[in-house]
Amino acid sequence: MAEPEYMILQGLPTPQVYHDLRKRAGLTPPSPEAMTEAVPQALHNSFASFLAYERKLMLNDTRPSPHQDVVGMGRLSGDGGLFLLVTDIAVHPDHRRKGIAKRIMTALVAYIDEHAPHAYVSLVADPMGQGLYAQFGFQGTGKSIGMFRCPKLQKDEAWMKAKGFQC
């Protein structure tokens, strides 16, 4: 069997890598104000995080080269026991449709099963990701709806309209 083109490794992105990959993947990047304290704190408090790298650029199977770009990421946040949230599933557009998101989800679900088997795991799925998440046993919440509160974003009418929210 051929070696995979990408390696999925447990680890945290730097705040700048996190920002840039979210932006390139079409997710809302954190604000400049959040980059100094909130993003480092959020990344530090992750329950688990996995990063994808191109194998051909790695120093070995467990170590990316120092200047190698992260091409995908996924993260778990929550209390580590009863409630977890899958966040930041992002793949660089140049590396999509190569199974990276599926392999990141496989790593996240295996981590959950081993370290938090009693957790209620939730996520908010954009239409593009719904089929992927269903493969891992995630299902719609029925009559429940996803909700959010982020005053800075909610004040930005252009962002709200671009995301399909009623203003």
From TrEMBL:
Domain called N-acetyltransferase: residue spans: 26-166
GO biological process terms on file: UDP-N-acetylglucosamine biosynthetic process
Gene Ontology MF term list: acyltransferase activity, transferring groups other than amino-acyl groups
Origin superkingdom: Eukaryota
SUPFAM superfamilies listed in its UniProt record: Acyl-CoA N-acyltransferases (Nat) (SSF55729)
PROSITE patterns hit by this protein: GNAT
InterPro entries registered for this protein in UniProt: Acetyltransferase_Butenolide (IPR053144), Acyl_CoA_acyltransferase (IPR016181), GNAT_dom (IPR000182)
A Pfam family it matches: Acetyltransf_7
The protein's name in its UniProt record: N-acetyltransferase domain-containing protein
